[in-house]
Amino acid sequence: MDDKTETGEDAGGDVAEDEEMTPPENFSPVCGLIYRSSFPRPENFGFLSKLKLKSILMLIPEEYPTENMEFVKKEGIRLFQVGMSGNKEPFVHLPDDVLSKALEIAIDPSNHPLLIHCNRGKHRTGCLVGCIRRLQNWSLTMIFEEYRRFAAPKARPLDLQFIEMYNEEQVSRIASRKGWLPLHW
């Protein structure tokens, strides 16, 4: 018998090498303890466990699959759902108030560490992250570059327009009053 225990740990207490540690597609730190990704799959749960997430912000209207709900419950993660429709020509547009609701959840430190995701971690997640960058006073050039990097090969002009035109005044006021502004990000 080798020196691995029944729990998958070797005698030194390290996790077995064969345990899945695969991040979701488009995974990346955003700032502080905010992360972004595509929709997490079961093969990503080991990786996400290591982040010690307190919250997940899901930006799609569909129900979470059973295996994801079991993971969230097992890990004690709070699940927020702000169902957004993506900006698609000619008639589907993301409403400001929906994005504001998601933004308030995302920047509230009591929800961190937080994972933000939609289906592919590109467009809806990109709009939200772009608005976080606006709160951080990033230039539009840098915001659009980051958006395009994650949305490639299919950046949506309406998303870029939304990020540019989004009026973050209400969220900025709330964030300032609660001390959430990302001064230390």
Uncertain segments are: 1-18
Number of helices: 7
Kindly provide the name of the CATH class: Alpha Beta
Q: Overall pLDDT, averaged?
A: 84
Into how many domains do the coordinates divide? 1
Note the gap between the termini.
49 Å
Tell me the structural class.
Answer: alpha/beta
- Tell me about the largest β-sheet: 5 strands, mixed
CATH homologous superfamily classification: Protein tyrosine phosphatase superfamily
CATH topology: Protein-Tyrosine Phosphatase, Chain A
Dominant shape: globular
Radius of gyration: 18 Å
The assigned CATH architecture is Alpha-Beta Complex
GO molecular function, one term: phosphatase activity
InterPro entries: PFA-DSPs (IPR020428), Prot-tyrosine_phosphatase-like (IPR029021), Siw14-like (IPR004861), Tyr_Pase_AS (IPR016130), TYR_PHOSPHATASE_DUAL_dom (IPR020422)
Keywords: Hydrolase
Protein name: diphosphoinositol-polyphosphate diphosphatase
List the helices and strands and how they pair.
Blueprint: E1 28-31, E2 34-37, H1 45-50, E3 55-58, H2 66-75, E4 78-81, H3 96-107, E5 114-117, H4 123-135, H5 140-151, H6 157-165, H7 169-178
Parallel strand pairs: 2-5, 3-4, 3-5
Antiparallel strand pairs: 1-2
Helix pairs in contact: 3-4, 3-7, 4-5, 4-6
GO cellular component, one term: cytoplasm
Family: Belongs to the protein-tyrosine phosphatase family. Atypical dual-specificity phosphatase Siw14-like subfamily.
Biased composition (Acidic residues): 8-22
